[in-house]
Amino acid sequence: MVAKVIPAVEARVHLGEIMKRSFKKGERFIVEKSGIPMIAILNAEEYTRIIQEREEQFKIFDKIKSNVPDVSPEKVQKDVTKAIRAIRKKSA
Q1: Which of the chain's termini has less CB crowding within 10 Å, N or C?
Q2: What are the domain boundaries of the chain?
């Protein structure tokens, strides 16, 4: 689902409605101020999932890094990201 971009004034005026839509329908919002994306609004379940996925990626990153200390952290992160994408593509 693509996030809906809304101005900060609209978010302020309609915060309760935005919260309900995010919670009940899983809608995502990007709040802009002066045309600059400032924050994202998403439901707590999705936020928790994203954080858990990120923590899992860091566990993989740390495991690889401990086994291959000569490789830069950037290279390891790139390889981990590539591997995760490949697994997700197979699962889809």
Answers
A1: C
A2: 4-42, 46-91
C-alpha distance across the termini of the chain, in Å = 16
pLDDT in tens, 14-59: 999 999 999 999 999 999 999 999 999 999 999 999 999 988 888 8
* Torsional class of 37: left (φ above 0), alpha (ψ -120 to 50), beta (otherwise): beta
> If residue 31 lies in a helix (H) or strand (E), which one and from where to where?
strand 29-33
Q: Does the structural domain 4-42 have CATH classification 1.10.8?
A: no
CB 41 within 8 A of CB 31: yes
